[in-house]
């Protein structure tokens, strides 16, 4: 940590400041985790894992769910189960998190980047087929910011070439197209449940295997995946407790300072492998790793309240949309869109991010083509200038969180100020798109 970053993190005067973190959890979950830390004999491999798995399968109508310590680890495991070889290619959107290309590189394959649409920030389906070669191993369907991409169109393309489709539901848990949940439509789906996602289990993720022809290989690969150590699991559970308190809007003015200090001291723990493009450089914990049962306690509660969570987020999206009118009413109400964040494009983003900062820490996603990496993109096989729409969006994206700790009335004046500024970059009003 540099002196500049320490100074920048110094606590300001006590005041209410909203943020993107830990906005779906309850005091009851705090009590349950605290009690388990003190009294439970097994916080890693306990029966809560089985209960959580069964609840996920029932809630998302999937027969084959497998829990992991993070979504990225689940993605890596499914790639390995597909027998991905050196120089195989996975087509992904050039607007994602760096852990996605990292997992592909760890498997021996190479990410191939496709440009995105500016209306929903998802992969441009019309550009995918031109990227398919005899080295292509899979097509990646990322549902960005809680808005589903056209996974059925991607499946049609994939079927012509006998390729699997992997859905990335890290940002879109609970989104639904007709009777089918995101993550259960492609051959695989994987999800993330860390503190910035639709539900928060501190760290965590899971995989849905939807195509029976991949199931045996996946289960064999899964059997080789280790659990996290008890000591590391305790640190994650402790992190959940600390975050739940210190990331609350009434304490975030202090928590923003204490969090990097606690990280430096090893008091709180996250998976910080974004800058590691070689798997053998990850030494603090096994990669991949399975989910710990003390975190499954949180997951069980979170899934039980998922519908309430989604309803609140949609209400926030309606509120934001009543001001900005970015999306059509039909788009807002469509169950394909769950709005982890309400996102749109603006000019002068740095100005507006600072303008909002005294009321809300926006932590805007994604400011690079692979958030978590700000330079040297050749490390992840991307060439700057390659995909113009993706790079344009990284410079202009602006998004507003929607979880239960967000009270938009507190920033209403700023929202109207932004609307009246003329800085919003308007495409045609976003409708439900058909390809």
Structural key phrases:
435 residues, alpha/beta, Aspartate Aminotransferase, domain 2, Aspartate Aminotransferase, domain 1, 7-stranded mixed β-sheet, 3-stranded antiparallel β-sheet, 15 helices, globular
Overview of this protein structure:
- The chain folds into two domains: about 30-225, Type I PLP-dependent aspartate aminotransferase-like (Major domain) (Aspartate Aminotransferase, domain 2, 3-Layer(aba) Sandwich); about 305-425, Aspartate Aminotransferase, domain 1, CATH 3.90.1150.
- It is about 40% helix and about 15% strand.
- The termini are far apart.
- The protein is built from 15 helices and 16 strands.
- It has helices at about 5-10, 25-40, 50-60, 70-80, 100-105, 150-160, 215-225, 230-245, 250-265, 295-305, 305-325, 330-335, 350-355, 390-395, 410-420; strands at about 65-70, 90-95, 95, 110-115, 135-140, 165-170, 175, 180, 190, 205-210, 225, 290, 340-345, 370, 395-400, 425.
Which helices and strands occur, and which strands form pairs?
Layout: H1 3-9, H2 27-39, H3 48-59, E1 65-68, H4 71-81, E2 89-93, E3 96-97, H5 99-106, E4 110-114, E5 136-142, H6 151-160, E6 165-168, E7 176-177, E8 180-181, E9 188-192, E10 205-209, H7 215-223, E11 226-227, H8 230-246, H9 252-265, E12 289-290, H10 293-304, H11 306-324, H12 329-333, E13 341-346, H13 349-356, E14 370-371, H14 388-396, E15 397-401, H15 412-421, E16 424-425
Parallel strand pairs: 2-4, 2-5, 3-14, 5-6, 6-9, 11-12
Antiparallel strand pairs: 1-10, 7-8, 9-10, 13-15, 13-16
Helix pairs in contact: 2-8, 2-10, 3-10, 4-5, 4-7
């Amino acid at each position: 940590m540099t002196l500049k970053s320490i100074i920048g993190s110094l606590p300001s005067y006590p005041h209410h400041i909203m943020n993107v973190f830990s906005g779906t959890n309850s005091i009851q979950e705090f009590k349950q985790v605290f009690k388990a830390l003190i009294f439970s004999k097994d916080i890693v491999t306990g029966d809560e894992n089985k209960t959580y798995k069964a609840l996920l399968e029932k809630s998302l109508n999937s027969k084959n769910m497998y829990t992991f310590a993070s979504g990225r680890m689940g993605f890596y495991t499914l790639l390995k189960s597909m027998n991905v070889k050196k120089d195989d290619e996975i087509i992904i959107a050039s607007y994602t998190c760096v852990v996605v290309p990292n997992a592909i590189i760890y498997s021996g394959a190479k990410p191939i980047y496709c440009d995105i649409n500016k209306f929903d920030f998802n992969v441009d389906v019309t550009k995918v087929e031109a990227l398919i070669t005899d080295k292509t191993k899979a097509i990646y369907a990322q549902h960005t910011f809680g808005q589903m991409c056209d996974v059925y169109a991607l499946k049609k393309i994939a079927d012509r070439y006998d390729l699997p489709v992997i859905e990335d539901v890290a940002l879109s848990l609970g989104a639904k197209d007709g009777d089918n949940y995101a993550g259960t439509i492609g051959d695989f789906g994987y999800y993330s449940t860390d503190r910035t996602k639709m539900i928060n289990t501190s760290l965590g993720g899971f995989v849905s295997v939807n195509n029976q022809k991949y199931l045996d290989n996946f289960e064999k690969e899964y059997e080789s995946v280790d659990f996290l150590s008890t000591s590391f699991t305790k640190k994650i559970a402790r992190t959940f407790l600390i975050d739940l308190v210190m990331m609350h809007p009434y304490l975030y003015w202090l928590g923003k300072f204490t969090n990097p200090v606690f990280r430096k001291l090893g008091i709180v723990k996250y998976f910080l492998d974004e800058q590691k493009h070689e798997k053998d450089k990850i030494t603090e914990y096994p990669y991949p790793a399975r989910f710990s049962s003390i975190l499954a306690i949180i997951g069980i509660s979170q899934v039980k309240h998922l519908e309430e969570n989604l309803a609140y987020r949609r209400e926030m999206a309606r509120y934001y949309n009543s001001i900005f009118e970015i999306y059509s009413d039909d788009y807002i109400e469509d169950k394909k869109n769950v709005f982890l964040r309400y996102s749109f494009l603006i000019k002068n983003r740095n100005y507006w991010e600072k303008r909002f900062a005294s009321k809300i820490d926006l932590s805007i996603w994604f400011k690079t083509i692979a958030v978590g990496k700000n330079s040297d993109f050749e490390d992840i096989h991307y060439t700057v200038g390659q995909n113009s729409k993706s790079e344009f969006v990284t410079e202009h994206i602006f998004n507003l969180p929607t979880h239960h700790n967000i009270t938009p009335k507190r920033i209403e004046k700023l929202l109207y100020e932004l609307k009246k500024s003329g800085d919003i970059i308007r495409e045609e009003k976003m409708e439900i798109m058909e390809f």
